[in-house]
Amino acid sequence: MKTNLNIREMLSLGFMAFALFLGAGNIIFPPFIGMQAGSHVWTAVAGFMLTGVGLPVIAVIALARSGGDLDEIISPVGKLAGNILIIACYLCIGPLFASPRTATVSYELGIAPFTAHSDIALYIYSFLYFAVAALISLYPGRLLESVGQFLAPLKIISLIVLAIAIFTAPDVPLHLPKSGFVDSPFSGGIVNGYLTMDTLAGLAFGLVVVNAIRSRGINKREMITRYTARAGIMAGAGLIAVYLSLFILGLKSVELAPDAKNGADILQAFVSYTFGTKGVAFLGVMISVACIVTAIGLTCSCASYFSSLTPFGYRPLVLFFAGLSFVISCAGLDKLIHFSIPVLIAVYPPFIVLIIAGFFKEKCLNPVRIIAPATGIAFVCGVFDGLWASNIKILVPLSYRELPLFEQQMAWITPTILTLIFSFVIQQLTVKKGVRRDSL
Question: Which UniProt keywords apply (predicted)?
Answer without folding.
Answer: Amino-acid transport, Cell membrane, Membrane, Transmembrane, Transmembrane helix, Transport
